[in-house]
């Protein structure tokens, strides 16, 4: 099975989990690394998202934020501002591993 648009975390405690994954779009494939981010600011991301430069350097390309829906249930969003990519995270279809999260792209709202 080819798996695209996912993050495989190393723990189901997402607040402290590291992850690796892949984001594929019509014009690019980005291998990503996800690292927990600590901040006292209430609007700060919970994780930073990194990609590799052509010379192999980690480049900060975005973040993951923990939010709550209208019913108060928590969910996570991913944003890569440099390329205008926004997504939610959710359990990957067809499997029971909570550490494998699908990246579900959505368009920004005006």
From TrEMBL:
<protein>
    <submittedName>
        <fullName>DUF736 family protein</fullName>
    </submittedName>
</protein>
<dbReference type="InterPro" id="IPR007948">
    <property type="entry name" value="DUF736"/>
</dbReference>
<dbReference type="Pfam" id="PF05284">
    <property type="entry name" value="DUF736"/>
</dbReference>
């Amino acid at each position: 099975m080819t798996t695209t648009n996912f993050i495989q975390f190393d723990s189901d405690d997402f607040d402290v989990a590291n992850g690796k994954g892949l984001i594929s779009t019509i014009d690019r494939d980005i291998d990503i690394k996800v690292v927990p981010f600590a901040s006292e600011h209430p609007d700060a991301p919970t994780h930073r998202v990194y990609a590799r430069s052509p010379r192999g350097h980690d480049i900060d390309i975005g973040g993951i934020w923990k939010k709550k829906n209208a019913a108060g249930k928590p969910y996570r969003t991913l944003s890569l501002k440099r390329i205008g990519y926004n997504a939610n995270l959710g359990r990957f279809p067809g499997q029971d591993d909570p550490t494998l999260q699908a990246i579900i792209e959505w368009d920004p709202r005006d």
